[in-house]
Design brief:
The complex is a heterodimer of chains A (about 300) and B (about 475). Chain A has about 300 residues and is mostly helical. Chain A has a single domain, classed as ABC transporter involved in vitamin B12 uptake, BtuC (Orthogonal Bundle). Helices cover about 75% and strands about 5% of the residues of chain A. Chain A has twelve helices and four strands, in the order ααααβαββααααβααα. In chain A, the strands form two sheets. Chain A has a two-stranded antiparallel ribbon with strand order 1-4. A two-stranded antiparallel ribbon of chain A has the order 2-3. In chain A, helix 6 packs across helix 7 and helix 10 crosses helix 11. Chain B has about 475 residues and is mainly α. In chain B, the strands form three sheets. A two-stranded antiparallel ribbon of chain B has the order 1-2. A two-stranded antiparallel sheet of chain B has the order 3-6. In chain B, strands 4-5 form a two-stranded antiparallel ribbon. The longest helix of chain B is centred in the middle third of the chain and has 27 residues. Chain B folds into two domains: about 280 residues, no CATH class; about 140 residues, no CATH class. In chain B, helix 4 runs antiparallel to helix 11 and helix 4 crosses helix 12. In chain B, strand 4 and strand 5 form a beta hairpin. Chain B contains 19 helices and six strands. The chains are: A mainly alpha (about 300), B mainly alpha (about 475).
Amino acid sequence: MDFFVQQLVNGVTLGSVYALIALGYSMVYGILKLLNFAHGEVYMIGAFIGYFVLTALGGAADPVLPVALVLVLMFLAGMLGAGILGVGIERFAYRPLRNAPRIAPLISAIGVSFFLQASALLLFTAQFRTYDTPELIPFTTGIDAGPLRISLVRILVISSAIFLMIALWYLVNRTRLGKAMRATSYDREAAAMMGIDVDRVIVATFFIGSVLAGAAGVMVGLVFGRVFHFMGFVAGLKGFTAAVIGGIGSIPGAMLGGMLIGLAEAFSAGYISSTFQNLIVFLLLITLMIVRPTGLLGSPVLQKV
Amino acid sequence: MPRIGTDEWVAEQELRTETYSGLTAPARRAFDRVGPGPRFFAFLAICAIFPFTTDSDFLIRVGVNVLLFALLALGLNIVVGWAGLLDLGYVAFYGFGAYAYAWVSSEQFGIHWPTELAIPAIVAASALLGVFLGLPSRRLVGDYLAITTLFFLQIFVELTLNLDRLTLPGADEPLNLTGGPNGIPGVDPMRIFTIDLLETRDYFYLLLVVFALAVVGLFYLNNSRTGRAWRASNDDPLAAELMTTPVARLKILAFSMGAAMAGLTGTIFAAVQVGVFPQNFEVILLVMVYAALILGGAGSIAGAVLGAIVVAAVPEILRTPENSRYLFYGVLLAVLLTIVRPWKRVAFLAGAVVLFGVVVHEIVAAVWPDGVAAEASAGRLGGVLESWVVLPAENRTTIGNVAFVVLVLAALALTQLRGDARLLFLVPTIYLAAFVWENRLIAQPSVTRQLLFGAILVAMMTTRPHGLLGTPRVENPI
């Protein structure tokens, strides 16, 4: 039972990170029908910004400010930096391709991904960086009730992920901008005719999606410690898979998909041998795609003539 | 041959009425006058002579790589360029061909089939596998198909990594199918009709023959009934279906033909490399093949070949600083010659950049002597550059990093400027590019390769989304 609860906590932590990344993929896909392969790199840059803010504030062992303030500053800087990067990518790599064949922005996205990865390698070198979180928030703090032991860092990560998702839900469903986003995603041309500034909505979508990826980057840095130039690739693939399972373009779907992948990973690592773990996951995914081609919560595509 | 499909005719309107201007115009007009047939034979002739011009095994190896890439890109062109199916599992067929060849001609199972039997059998098996993996394409559209096929590729990689200790029920010891991360070493060389292929040069000619046959075959296939049907079902599947085109069957056919070509290329790759390893077939290769095809222009045979040359050969030139420097300044000059016109502006730009560099160099030398103290790396151009580019002796990495970030921002700003402002702003940007190149990039060829590759992909797509030699398509709004 202890083991089960521990794996559950691990799975939910991983799942919240994947869900945040998946949300960015899904939102962009919903509006532009574009698979933004550079999204993983935005997440990587977010993690690096968090690291540099931590270092600038004296490092984990000896922060110059109260710990809570350091954490808030790390999150804010990482999110803002990632958001600006996302908007920049949209402006220079995707906007000129708005009406090009579908594959052109895809290749452009791969180009951006390569470029950002190589830039990180050039500027930050190939060395692994660590947040040294135990020095900042000792792992012994947290809930410790018999079988249930959750360190404070994990509580922090899970609760801030939940907070961000609620904020996103509110933004999309209860604000004017959210309404505009939903309208644009439903039919871009009609939305433009109704006086919605589509370009502004797209910029906002990229900004919000990238902000979430930046937050995910800082969270991964806090929980798992290692930050390096290649981290975006695997996380991007996982987040993308999560978005697809949930039904790409659907926001609750992305959250659900992220949680599922995180839990599946934690439990299969804990209970099944790891040799064929990925294989089983991919076979399940293919079966799911064939049975439900639009994901768990995706709506069926209507073909217009 | 009459053009079928008005979409292409409309899209080509701009190209047809295009008049070349600038310094390179006469060369481009002359190139246009030569038809595709003579151009192809000239290309083949150059390729055939190439191994005689060099003794270096490395250069021939690069040639082999280019041809392997070209064949892969041509196969992918059937699936992506003509049938319009986003197949992200393509490399798995290439890997399957390579592994299958290794199974039937190595000590892994002690089987040594004659090459004349192995190749057709493997090509047929790859085609069959293509049919099998193409089946979901009947139901899945667009990006969902891309995702599913990407999962297939991931499964393939997982299988190659893990099928080295497969325990079958009833068997005494685990079966080693793929050699796991160590792959299968020691694959037999090919022997085709009593000719032993032992050297890299032999494989170059084998690939050249296969390549020539493939190009001719694909050229006629493209203009055949099947080729037209593919393009029709790509342009508008619903309309094509209503015109009684068997869209689902055509998709599967495209899948299996692409798979067969990839499988064939894989067998030759396994023999050339004398072994197969899981890391040969990862996502990065898929990206490179896609980049080759899209850079050249999806749907165009010549484009696929051109893209393969760019993607497979250019990174090799970047290996030594001397060569990469020539390439860097050469490409910079070529790009300016084609983009900036009339030639008076080119002359102004060149003069201004040289003058700007000399002035900056003198100012820095007067203010901060250490700033110009370092020596440029060896080479004939190095001596000239030392008196033009600022080369700081200390803090070179930090200064280079800052300059790199500034250069990226400047290049982005450049895309927003027009006319004379852009021309003026180009002067410091080009100088800055040379500065970053000499100080930071030239010492790190592998990072530079990836950096340039990414930048070229973005620049290429945003300026010419249909690729170098592709035909612009009028895309139906979704």
